Amino acid sequence: MLDFLKSARPRRLRIVRNGHPALRQKSSPIKEVTAEVRRLAARMVVTMQENDVVGVGLAAPQVGVNVRLIVVDTSPDEDSPPPTEPLSPGEASLNPRMPLALVNPEITWVSPETSCCGEGCLSLPGVRGEVTRPARVRLNATTLDGEAIDVECGGLLARCLQHEIDHLDGVLFIDRAPDEQQKAAAPLLKRMEKNELKQLAKR
Ligand SMILES: [Zn+2]
Predict the structure, then answer these.
(1) Does 152 qualify as catalytic in the annotation?
(2) N or C: which terminal CB in the chain sees fewer CB atoms within 10 Å?
(3) From ligand 1's centre to the CA of 88, what distance in Å?
(4) Separation of 83 CA from ligand 1 center, angstroms?
């Protein structure tokens, strides 16, 4: 558990939607974990948890900030069925520490085996797509306290990390879905873009 959650609960942030320019930019590395970065991470955790749909991850561009910071919580609920496969080293070591903020996360290796799974995104409400990704990845990152993480991750954590790190490079899951699913989602994405640009113009 992150320390800040024990004190006053930070305020949630607005999640930007398809059409917001922050979702299509490459985000900058974080050079130093300042109080501002910690505050942002805290607010991102609350934003991830307090959404109508509870997210398993959130990337800073989704709250309109183009820095390389993500928060993840893919730990199983108390009432989830027990895992059918042994946990990967990443899930075993990181699940108990979730929600977890990762600074400058990178995928340094991907497995040749892939898995296909339906994905959604808090920035693309109502849009779903089947995305094929490497089944296991090696994660390199640091925590807010400067601890280096270098671990192989599988399962939902591997998928979530790839989805969130894609956000830091301006890539959305729907870009990786089959053409026909992209086409089917296009009208909804277009409407979302129009609304998002209208919102932006008001600010
Ligand atoms: Zn997303």
Answers:
(1) no
(2) C
(3) 23
(4) 24
CA of 134 to the centre of ligand 1 (A): 17
| Ligand 1 mean position, distance from CA 181 (Å) | 17
- Whether the pLDDT of residue 52 is over 70: the answer is no
Q: What is the pLDDT of residues 6-51, one digit of tens each?
A: 567 899 999 999 999 999 999 999 999 999 999 999 999 999 998 7
Describe the strand order of the beta sheet including 57-59 as a list of residue ranges: 57-59, 69-72, 100-110, 137-142, 148-153
- Classify residue 24 by burial, with Cβ atoms within 10 Å: 0-12, 13-18, 19+: middle
What's the pLDDT score for residue 2? 61
Please tell me the CATH superfamily of domain 3-202, with its number.
Peptide deformylase (3.90.45.10)
pLDDT reported for residue 5: 54
Q: Which of 32, 50, 78, 164 is catalytic?
A: 164
Q: Give the Å distances, CA to CA, from 166 to 10, 35, 113, 115.
A: 26, 25, 19, 17
Detail the DSSP E strand segments found in the chain. 57-59, 69-72, 100-110, 114-119, 129-134, 137-142, 148-153
Record the tokens describing residue 166, joined without a space.
């894609």
